[in-house]
Fold this protein.
Amino acid sequence: MKTIYYISGIVAVVSFIIAVVTRLFLFNKCFLGISALSYLRVTNTMLLFTIVFIVLEYVRGKKKE
């Protein structure tokens, strides 16, 4: 379970960095044919996945106690 939220957290951070760089430095606001807004949407989705998986692991840990 930890690997899932580590991966989603890493994808969120990377997509956020790509979105910021795309927005600031690229003329047509696209990187690899995808707009900066799309990268920010991926960031939001992955952060929500990360939060959900962390909460699920916390709840599962509380049930064991």
Summary: Residues 28 and 35 are 9 Å apart (CA to CA). The chain has a mean pLDDT of 77. Helices lie at 2-25, 36-64.
